[in-house]
Design brief:
The chain is of the alpha+beta class. The protein has a domain of about 110 residues: Up-down Bundle (Methane Monooxygenase Hydroxylase, Chain G, domain 1). The protein contains 25 helices and 16 strands. The protein starts with a strand and ends with a helix. The N terminus and C terminus are likely disordered.
């Protein structure tokens, strides 16, 4: 109560009122405590604006992780913070009685998944879905989680088993720099962008010790080998070779200082990822010895020289295109490095073999200049894709455990982020399609499933509306007609496909979809898809050809002639091996398109995810410049809207935090019944629907 002296407030009272006014303003303004809110369910009211202000306040205070109910929000700091990921911090989260009471961290999610596998009566496989747009920090997050599991899931008793475990962990961690060197590249939005998707399965035995791992990859962007967008780079490994090779290696691989290569744009840029020695050391630990490494790098140098092989127009259609004057040396060097005969290499690039008629007569037709360029690019993409797949198989053979030695797994999913560039083609369509599928998995598993479960159990619940991206998925993959089905159909038709014709087919067949947009001002044939993360315009030029991904059989036969030990492994001279275009006429089998293969691999991935208990980490990109201490509200706002974060917070705040099935609840707490002698015997069997969490109210209250 305020006291007055001679009709005036005392000095202390006046100070108290002033303090109260400041506290009230701070409370109403919501600014002061925002950086201290480690869970967005505590923000009041929960709106996009308040969530945005909270994240900005925490980012300004160098606090980059925030809980959002079932999801962890990870803001990319764009600067190294080694103390945040040290082994001491890992142990702190691992040994904490209640890690959730510590500050939010990716290690909180890692420890939760580990304890779930360890403590459940019936252990359930776990998975962590790391999502976000390109440059948001997904690769770094996955890398740190792997290091965390390597530390906490290794506690063998004997010295011998400790050394074995240490070797396994080191190999698992060494797979990262190798896969990033060969599968990542610098793009407009990210200096270390994953140009493939990967699902890493960390395998645990009954004692919850990591015994091995397995890597599954998805859709390597192999077109990048021969085609890089303006201001972008090729895969890191090419720059590592050119910058890190010794003088003797430069001589051996014909990589002179300052040499210019068409497929090596922006070589003057120096990135952290250009460290050649780290890649070589990691390959050595994975069992790839020095001679084999030398073969790999020599072949890659050969591809760089192949990219300098340029052709001139032929004045006579009956004659093959001549080489440009400065390309003669390049083709000779490429043939030498790939250990291919020079004349057959030139002939294969410039002359097409056609089989026709009932007797399958062979005709030789000189290629146009554009066709020569296409065949050259195809040769490079074929070699690189086979090499990448071989590396993945070597990694798996090095780190994968015997099936009998592990019982459960924790999966880490790191896929390409949502992409929208000035020019978008089949690669971006597949990447964004994958992101749509993962967003639907989140919607189905959490936003929709939880609310349906509450309603089914008769709990008092007000439905929270959310953005469901099923309409967009129907447009891309639906039945009977979708973008994927129309592109595949164009591949099957025995006629040339024009870009304008494909645009017209898509717009007319799918005109009723609200997720199909139109850009009448565009001069180039294209269509617009309204994705959950924003609208993207896809160019139809070259889209059908990319989907076919044709490999002329002459190229495969040429590579089978190589005397290089590595290429002999990648292209075995197997008489029974048939290229996808080898059969002709009525005996020709349907070609499996890129879209069809990618769709099938996505379905397999989602089946694995559905069989696990999923956890979600949403990586957010504070700005598109990749600069520290810069928070662009508009860019972050669009990401928050796209991933449905506010709806997630609403459901998490109003829902039940602890979810245990009736059966597990009864089995776990059966001993407590003895403390209540008058209590009736509890049933040992689950209710009719044993999947329901009937005990949630008591646990969540």
């Amino acid at each position: 109560m305020l006291q007055q002296v001679n009709g005036q407030s005392s000095g202390s009272d006046a100070h108290g009122r002033e303090s109260l006014r400041e506290d009230l303003q701070a409370f109403l303004g919501g600014e002061a405590p925002l950086h201290q809110l480690d869970d967005l369910t505590k923000v009041n009211p929960v709106t996009l604006e308040t969530v945005l202000r909270c994240l900005q306040a925490r980012y300004t205070a160098d606090t980059f992780y925030t809980r959002a109910g079932c999801t962890l929000v990870a803001l990319n700091p764009f600067k190294p913070i080694p103390q945040l990921y040290s082994p001491e911090v890992m142990q702190e989260y691992h040994t904490a009685p209640q890690p959730q009471k510590l500050k939010p961290h990716i290690f909180t999610v890692g420890e939760q998944t580990y304890r779930n596998v360890k403590s459940l009566i019936e252990p359930v496989n776990q998975s962590i879905v790391v999502s976000g747009e390109s440059g948001a920090g997904k690769t770094w997050t996955s890398r740190c989680l792997m290091k965390f599991y390597a530390v906490v899931a290794a506690s063998p008793t004997s010295w011998e088993s400790h050394k074995i475990a240490e070797r396994i962990e080191q190999r698992i961690l060494n797979s990262n720099p190798v896969m990033e060197a060969f599968g990542n590249a610098c793009t407009l939005r990210n200096n270390n962008s994953s140009r493939f998707g990967k699902f890493i399965q960390l395998q645990l035995n009954r004692a919850q010790q990591m015994t091995g791992a397995a890597v599954q990859t998805y859709l390597l962007e192999k077109t990048r080998v021969a085609c890089q967008a303006s201001s972008e780079r090729n895969f890191h490994i090419f720059y590592q070779i050119c910058k890190g090779a010794s003088a003797d290696e430069r001589l051996q691989w014909h990589l002179a200082e300052g040499a210019a290569f068409s497929w090596l744009p922006n070589p003057e840029r120096t990135l952290e990822e250009d460290c050649f020695e780290v890649t070589r050391e990691a390959m050595l630990h994975l069992g790839i010895d020095a001679p084999t490494q030398n073969n790999i790098f020599q072949a890659l140098a050969g591809l760089l020289h192949l990219g300098n092989t340029r052709f001139a127009d032929s004045g006579n259609e009956a004659q093959p295109c001549p080489l440009m004057d400065d390309a003669k040396c390049s083709v000779r060097t490429a043939a030498s490095l790939l250990r291919l005969p020079e004349d057959p290499l030139l002939e294969t690039l410039r002359i097409r073999t056609i089989r026709a008629g009932r007797r399958q007569q062979v005709f030789r037709k000189p290629c146009s200049r554009a066709e020569c360029d296409t065949r050259r690019d195809c040769l490079a993409k074929l070699v690189y894709a086979r090499l990448f797949d071989w590396l993945v198989s070597v990694i798996n053979s090095s780190i994968c455990a015997d099936p009998d030695s592990w019982t459960t797994f924790i999966g880490l999913l790191d896929v390409y982020g949502f992409e929208s560039f000035p020019t978008n083609s089949l690669e971006q369509l597949c990447i964004n399609y994958a992101n749509e599928k993962l967003q639907q998995h989140f919607v189905a598993h959490y936003l929709r499933a939880q609310q349906e479960e509450y309603t089914a159990e008769g709990l008092e619940w007000s439905t929270v509306s959310y953005q469901d991206n099923q309409t967009c998925l129907d447009l891309i993959e639906g039945s009977p007609v979708s973008i994927c089905s129309l592109i595949n159909e164009e591949c099957r038709l025995n006629r040339p496909s024009s870009a304008a014709q494909l645009q017209t087919r898509i717009e007319s067949a799918l005109a009723g979809s609200p997720c199909l947009g139109h850009n009448k001002l565009s001069r180039e044939p294209s269509f617009i898809v309204v994705h959950y993360a924003g609208s993207v315009r896809y160019h139809t030029a070259g889209l059908v050809e990319k989907n076919k991904d044709p490999i002329p059989p002459e190229l495969t036969r040429l590579l089978q002639q190589s005397q290089d030990p590595l290429l002999k492994v990648l292209f075995p001279a197997d008489p029974e091996e048939k290229s996808q275009e080898e059969p002709s006429g009525q005996s020709r089998a349907p070609v499996l398109t890129v879209v069809s293969k990618f769709k099938a691999s996505l379905e397999q991935l989602l089946q694995v995810l559905h069989s696990t208990t999923p956890h979600y980490i949403r990586c957010i990109k504070p700005n598109s410049q990749g600069r520290a201490q810069m928070f662009h509200q508009e860019e972050v706002l669009s990401q928050l809207e796209a991933c449905g974060l506010v709806e997630t917070i609403h459901i998490s705040a109003a829902g039940f935090p602890i979810r245990v099935s009736h059966r597990n609840f009864v089995e776990r707490y059966e001993l407590l019944r003895r403390l209540c002698p008058g209590a009736a015997p509890s049933p040992h069997g689950p209710p009719p629907d044993e999947g329901r969490s009937a005990s949630r109210e008591a646990l969540g209250s």
